[in-house]
Amino acid sequence: MPANATLPNEQRPFVFGALAAGILLLIYFGALTLVSGWSFAVAQFVQFWYYILLLAVGFGIQVGLFVRLRQIIGQAGQSGAVMATSGTASTAAMVSCCAHYLATVAPVLGATGLVTFATQFQVELFWVGLLFNFAGIVYIGDKVLKASREHAQCQA
Prior knowledge:
The chain is mainly alpha-helical. The protein has one domain (12-155). The protein is built from six helices and no strands. It has helices spanning 12-36, 38-76, 81-98, 102-109, 112-120, 122-155. The radius of gyration is 18 Å and the shape is elongated. The protein starts with 11 loop residues before the first helix and ends with a helix. Mean pLDDT is 75; it is low at 78-96.
């Protein structure tokens, strides 16, 4: 593809979703490496890879759906308010999935109780993140389906 060519519309959601998942994994490894070193980041990934990959893929799906929703709304000339609302689920999922990493920073802040809580309930926090991730996918997916139907009716 030439440098000045644009990405075809039907590929944009997939490409942006894959990029979002990849960026999330880079942030995961980057943050853990900065806080505790590369070997700790790898050890954590090996121990919890299934949660981490599911969260990254789920986030990528949400971003892909969000991009698709923006395309539909842009074609229909509707307000972008729906996009702002649907982005809330992604934010909630990211906050809950990454909350357990506060355990490595919280002692510096003097929050010993938070460290104990985040460490003790790390797996549960992964599940909360996955739940929010799933809820975000369902929510944004529903918005995409509704917007697609409305757009198809306008075209008919």
